[in-house]
Amino acid sequence: MRKRISMVIIMGLIVCLIHLALAGPAGALSCSCGPFIPGTGNWTIVSNGDFSNGLTGWLNEDPHNRGSFAISDEYAISGDTSAKAIPSESFEGWGFALYKSVSVTPNQEYVLSGFFVRDCHASLYLDLADASFEKTVAASIPYSTNWQFCWDYFTVPPDVNQVNLRLCYDGIVYLAEHGYFDDVAITPANEFEPPLGVNPLDVGLVGYWSFDEGEGEIAHDKSGNGNDGTIHEANWAIGAKGNALSFDGVNDFVQVANPNSLNFGSTIDFTMMAWIKAENFQQLYPSLISRRDPPTYTEWPPNDPDWIPIGNNGYLLFLWNDPALPGHDGNLSGEMSDGAFQGQINYLSNSGNLFDDTWHHVAMTGDRDHYLKVTVQALGA
Fold it and tell me: Structural domain boundaries of the chain?
């Protein structure tokens, strides 16, 4: 069934797990999303890196008069406050920063780390720089009110004993949005331990629906981002492991609202995965995971007024099934927006026919700089 939706999991098959993740930014070795277990992990906070003494020791860097930092009690990992980035205008490009000089030991390996709340579209990151090297650690998940703990390793060059540490806020910035930093740390690598998370799922996770409830009309999002889905008509069933949902291919689907955390636009890298078990049926191009925008013109295509294209910010993972174009039935396929007017990038795999009543793990990766790719692995492979 093709219908106008925001974010929907809609299938004529059985699915036991849906998993959406954003690719981590370049330079960020790892990033996990809380909640975190208090008292676990070990890192060395830089002087006033927990902002318990306000912004003492930190300096504002705002060459374009685009914003500033202030102390906030809205979020805090340790103590009662964090540093809040406050833009003074909406803009795109270089933004503003909070910075200080930090002493380091030449030739020593360290870990740069920090906690972030990226309740915004803007890029939120730590930048550690000297004339001879640079290290950046960035928050992965946009529009999330959960703390993200991100870190990466670096080795100090032999002639460096002082580096500039910056808390940066730039990119695509909207006036009413903000970001938060706390517990900024530079730790000797042999002493560093990341905190343990109550729900330590994959890097950059924005949605995780296990369909393990077994009853009810809500598919709960276990990523911690609150993207719960409403189940329409689908029936509970036995999955590859645990429970699953069975869809009839006519009017069964799980619908999620339209949160910004699931809007990847035309620039954000992403991966989506699912376990599926499909039987052959007559529906054209059955969708596994899709996000579609309403059309911006009235005749697309002229002979199918109910068809809604993926639009400028959409994506679609589906199985090929078209009698008019035989030879690829059941092959895993994908589409993602390229940012142009209703433009899209398509990929038809040679996975073979997945309408085989067998469990398969399927995935789609959108790398904006290189490719759109879909992959399949059978259960037990």
Answer: 7-23+204-378, 30-191
Got the DSSP string for 291-346? E-PPPSSS-SSTT-TT----TTS-EEEEE---TTSTT-TT-EEEEEE-SSTT-EEE
* Largest separation between any pair of C-alpha atoms in the chain: 69
How many angstroms separate the CA atoms of 31 and 84, rounded? Answer: 20
Q: How far apart are CA 300 and CA 310, in angstroms?
A: 12
Length of the chain: 381
> Where is pLDDT greater, at 86 or 372?
86
Name residues whose C-beta falls within 8 Å of residue 138's C-beta, 6 or more positions apart in sequence: 24, 25, 27, 28, 31, 123, 124, 125, 126, 150
Which residue in this structure is represented by tokens 């799980």? 254
Which position has the token pair 């040679």? 350
Report whether 141 contacts 23 (CB < 8 A).
no
User: So what's the pLDDT on residue 371?
Assistant: 61
pLDDT tens readout for residues 221-258: 877 678 888 999 888 888 877 788 888 877 888 888 87
Two structure tokens written together for 345: 């990038």
- 345 within 8 A of 372, measured Cβ to Cβ: yes
Say which CATH class 30-191 falls into.
Answer: mainly beta
What CATH number belongs to 7-23+204-378?
2.60.120.200
Domain 30-191 in the same topology as domain 7-23+204-378: yes
Closest among 58, 2, 10 to 254, alpha carbons compared: 10
Backbone angles phi and psi of 358, in degrees to 5: -130, 145
